[in-house]
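Project outcomes to date are best conveyed with an example. Our students and postdoctoral researchers have been running inverse folding experiments weekly, and each run begins with a structure described purely in tokens. The record below, which covers 103 residues, was selected by the lab manager from last quarter's runs and is presented without edits.
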């Protein structure tokens, strides 16, 4: 559902009637640039992966001869990894008291 939803939201409105043989890197880059500008870098990363898989399937099925989107992810900014915030050791007693007093 997640994959289909992302394609429905971000890809199908622009490429719905475009034959797979007509989809190329410049077209997809233009399609995804607004998402990158908006800061949705994780979405851009996932969409490039999904579109790449679709094109690879097209190659393996004989629909197209080469994947024009291979390596397209390198054009976009990479999402920054963010670790979960952690408690400092001196904050642990306060947390334990709050848990003990919770009803």
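After processing, the design step wrote out the following sequence:
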């Amino acid at each position: 559902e997640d994959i289909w939803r992302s394609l429905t939201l971000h890809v199908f409105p622009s490429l719905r009637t475009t034959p797979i043989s007509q989809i190329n890197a410049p077209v997809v880059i233009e399609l995804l640039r607004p998402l990158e500008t908006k800061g949705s870098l994780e979405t851009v990363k996932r969409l490039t992966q999904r579109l790449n898989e679709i094109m690879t399937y097209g190659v393996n099925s004989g629909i197209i001869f080469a994947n024009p989107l291979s390596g397209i992810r390198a054009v976009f900014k990479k999402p920054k990894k963010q670790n979960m915030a952690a408690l400092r050791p001196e904050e642990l007693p306060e947390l334990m008291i709050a848990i003990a007093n919770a009803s």
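The chain has a mean pLDDT of 92. The first helix runs from residue 2 to 10. The training component of this project remains on track.
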